[in-house]
């Protein structure tokens, strides 16, 4: 048995919200850097989308690994 307090819905969604906000920031920076490097706007948007998917996937994998079992 675990002696931890039960997780509420608020406590469950806060890390996910933090991960999604972080991934959004990473994607915005990646898209702006791609545009500043000379890519056109659609290519910069695709770069940002790829960065979002990669960052969100990595953060979710880290959270899954760090979760108590």
In words, what does this structure look like?
- It is a single chain.
- This protein has 69 residues and is mainly alpha-helical.
- It is 78% helix and 0% strand.
- It contains two helices and no strands.
- It has helices at residues 9-36, 41-66.
- Helix 1 (9-36) runs antiparallel to helix 2.
- The longest helix is centred in the first third of the chain and has 28 residues, at 9-36.
- The radius of gyration is 16 Å and the shape is elongated.
> Biggest sheet, open or closed, and with what strands and sense?
none
Strand content: under 5%
- Overall average residue pLDDT: 89
Rg: 16 Å
Instruction: Give the overall shape.
Output: elongated
List low-pLDDT spans. Answer: none
Portion of residues in helices? over 70%
Q: Give the oligomeric state of the chains in this entry, treating copies of one chain as homo and distinct chains as hetero.
A: single chain
DSSP strand count? 0
Order of SSEs, N→C? HH
**Helical segment tally?**
2
Termini distance?
11 Å
Task: Name its key features.
69 residues; mainly alpha; elongated
Topology, pairings included?
Layout: H1 9-36, H2 41-66
Helix pairs in contact: 1-2
Can you summarize this structure?
The protein is mainly alpha-helical.
